[in-house]
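QUALITY CONTROL LOG
STEP: pairwise intake check
CHECKER ROLE: data steward
CRITERIA: each record must contain a sequence immediately followed by its structure tokens, with no blank fields

ENTRY 1 OF 2
RESULT FIELD BELOW
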Amino acid sequence: QVHLVESGGGSVQPGGSLRLSCAASGDTYRGYCMGWVRQAPGKEREGVASIDTAGRTSYKDSVKGRFTISRDSAKNTLYLRMNSLKAEDSAMYYCAAGRCGMGYSAWGQGTQVTVSS
């Protein structure tokens, strides 16, 4: 079973940057696809970025060119670098993991990102 703990959220002005981290435990982590999912108040949960075991990445259109997902297998950590943040990026961000092609089965507790002037 994979256990996920996020960190790095906070408040930032529009145009600012943040880096989210997700520490993973469990031997099966290395065989899992991972991603970041966010949910704003009153809105549905949406996938932001994902990365597979080979390092291939995919992004939601609205964050392409601004967000970068990466994983450090030696540290069992997933990252999301967020640049040029916009107010519409404000949400609770969740780290997720699961066997590739089978959906996410493990979730972190979430970290809040607020973009406001």
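ENTRY 2 OF 2
RESULT FIELD BELOW
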Amino acid sequence: QVQLQESGPGLVKPSQTLSLTCTVSGASITTVYYAWGWIRQSPGKGLEWMGVIHYDGSTYYSPSLKSRTSISRDTSKNLFSLQLSSVTPEDTAVYYCNAFTTSEDYLGQGTQVTVSS
């Protein structure tokens, strides 16, 4: 059973960089065929896929967020991170990390991030 826990600041100022970390237990982030991603849900909107980092370190991003998004990992700590630059109030959302293979899907509990001055 994979468990995911998001952490990071709940309040970010406009134009700054949002940084979140997802700590993983129950599986190594280098386990073959696992993918580790970030999704978010803004008030009144559906889930939005942001990007993913695969077990081999390859990354893929949503085209609409690609210019502002970076996903990285620390294999020694078994965690992966999200950075979203130049945030605006429209980036206010609950941010979730998730893990998936072709047959498994796990979701963290989510963390609220508000962008406000």
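INTAKE CHECK: passed for both entries
DESCRIPTIVE NOTE, ENTRY 2: The chain has a mean pLDDT of 96.
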